[in-house]
Amino acid sequence: MSPGVNQRSLIKMTPSEIEAFLAERHNMTMCTLNHDGTIHAVAMWYGFLEGCLAVETKAKSQKARNLRRNPAMTVLVEAGRSYDELRGVELVGTAEIVEEPDRLTALGISVYERYYGPYSEAAAGFVAAMLNKRIVAKLHVARTVSWDHRKLGLSPPA
Prior knowledge:
The chain has helices at about 10, 15-25, 60-70, 100-115, 125-130; strands at about 30-35, 40-45, 45-50, 50-60, 70-80, 85-100, 135-150. It is α+β, with helices and mostly antiparallel strands and about 160 residues long. The protein has one domain (about 10-100, about 110-150): Electron Transport, Fmn-binding Protein, Chain A (Pnp Oxidase, Chain A), CATH 2.30.110.10. A seven-stranded antiparallel beta sheet has the order 2-1-5-6-7-4-3, with helices on both faces. Strand 3 (about 45-50) and strand 4 (about 50-60) form a beta hairpin. Helix 4 packs across helix 5. It is globular.
């Protein structure tokens, strides 16, 4: 394919590929809007709550304050070390602030299992401490953008 040709349709992930990619263990970049309209971007771990991607954060954090003022939220989950390996998913939507203890715990367990390992009652104290003075931001997705450069069949020169 010659340079400048739109390859978007070639690299777009299918819904099942997106689901599988997001199920993998990744860091993500979470973006919210500051009071002055600038973007606040932070690296986050994430889990899933009620089928939606979600994060936990301190109730008084900048991102929580931003979401209470304006629930617009965009996240970027990406992987790959070279151009031919790049893949990622951008999710754009609206955050729901969750403060109910049972829902906080459900997300806490999801994050724990994704980044630490299987959850057991022995981890309950750790998860409870992790959620102290926290809220959950549950993302309701309005738009998804994805790419997987591995589909291009490129390989760097030897």
